[in-house]
Automatic annotation (TrEMBL):
Any GO molecular function: GMP synthase (glutamine-hydrolyzing) activity
EC number: 6.3.5.2
Keyword vocabulary terms for this entry: Ligase
EC class of the enzyme, as a word: ligase
Pfam families, sorted: GATase
Protein name per UniProt: GMP synthase (Glutamine-hydrolyzing)
Lyase as UniProt keyword: no
Gene3D superfamilies: 3.40.50.880
GO cellular component, one term: cytosol
Residue ranges annotated for the Glutamine amidotransferase domain, each copy included: 50-194
Length: 245
C-alpha cells in the first residue's frame, strides 16, 4: 500500500504526538503507512502525488481567517505550503480529508468565505447529514447515522461555500459541518480524530487560547463525560479503507 500523509501544524510536540497517535489508531494505519509532515517547521515531503494514497490535515492553534499581519512566521510558512499542496491535490485528484483547521484551509483554497460568524466553543454538538451526505461514498463507507454527535471547538467556520462545493453535514450553530469539493476532497468542522478523553486532553493544552473560558473548564469536562461521540472517528477508518492504493 502507498502511504498516507498526515499534515500537522501544531508547534507543541506533546500535542502533535498525541494527535498523530489518534489518527493512526482511528484510521487503523501502521506507523510506516502514515508519513508525518509538520508544515509549521518543514516543507511537505519530497513525494510525487502518485506515490501516496491520500492526505489528512487535522486541527491547529492557527486560525486561517486571521489577518495576515496577525499571523506568525510559522503560520504563514505552513499556510503557504498547504496552499501549494492543495494545488497538487486538485491537479492530481489526491484524496484529502481536512478537520477543523483543515476546513478553514481547504475552504480558503476553494474560495469559501471563512470567518468567525459560526465559531463554536469547546463541546459536543448535534450533526445532521444532508441528502447529499447520505449518498456520499465516504459517508456511506463510514456508516454514519443521519444525526450524530460531533466534538468541536473552533473560532472560525465556513460562512458560505462556493457553488462547486457540496454540504454533506450541517449543525444548528455552524451550518457547514462537512463538505466535499472535487471528486474526493473533504473537510469537517467537527473532529474525527478526537474522542471524549482526547478532546479533554487537548483542551487542557489550549485552555488559554480562547476556545472557551478557563473558568468554565471543569463544567465543560463534566458535561463531556456523558457524551457518546463514537461515530466521527469512523470517517478516518473509512478514508483509509476507501482510498488506500
Amino acid at each position: 500500500m502507498k502511504p498516507f500523509v498526515q499534515i500537522a501544524t501544531r508547534p507543541e510536540d506533546d500535542v502533535a504526538l498525541t494527535e498523530r497517535a489518534a489518527v493512526l489508531d482511528f484510521a487503523g494505519l501502521a506507523e510506516e503507512e502514515l508519513l508525518w509532515a509538520r508544515l509549521d517547521r518543514e516543507p511537505f515531503p519530497d513525494l510525487a502525488m502518485d506515490e501516496i494514497s491520500g492526505i489528512i490535515l487535522c486541527g491547529s492553534p492557527f486560525t486561517a481567517s486571521d489577518p495576515i499581519e496577525d499571523k506568525s512566521d510559522a503560520q504563514l510558512r505552513a499556510e503557504k505550503e498547504i496552499d501549494r499542496v492543495l494545488d497538487a491535490v486538485f491537479a492530481h485528484d489526491v484524496p484529502f480529508l481536512g478537520a477543523c483547521y483543515g476546513i478553514g484551509t481547504l475552504g480558503t483554497h476553494i474560495g469559501a468565505r471563512i470567518d468567525r460568524t459560526y465559531g463554536e466553543p469547546l463541546g459536543a454538538v448535534e450533526v445532521s447529514l444532508t441528502d447529499a451526505g447520505r449518498e456520499d461514498p465516504l459517508v456511506r463507507e463510514a456508516r454514519l447515522e443521519d444525526t450524530f454527535t460531533g466534538l468541536v471547538g473552533h473560532k472560525e467556520a465556513v460562512h458560505t461555500l462556493p457553488e462547486h462545493a457540496v454540504t454533506l453535514a450541517t449543525g444548528r450553530t455552524s451550518p457547514v459541518q462537512m463538505f466535499r469539493v472535487g471528486t474526493r476532497q473533504y473537510a469537517t468542522q467537527f473532529h474525527p480524530e478526537l474522542d471524549v478523553p482526547s478532546i479533554i486532553e487537548r483542551a487542557r493544552a489550549y485552555r488559554d487560547h480562547g476556545y472557551f473560558s478557563p473558568d468554565e473548564m471543569d463544567d465543560i469536562f463534566t458535561s463531556l463525560q456523558h457524551v457518546d461521540a463514537d461515530q466521527p472517528p469512523r470517517l478516518l477508518r473509512a478514508f483509509a479503507t476507501l482510498f488506500a492504493r
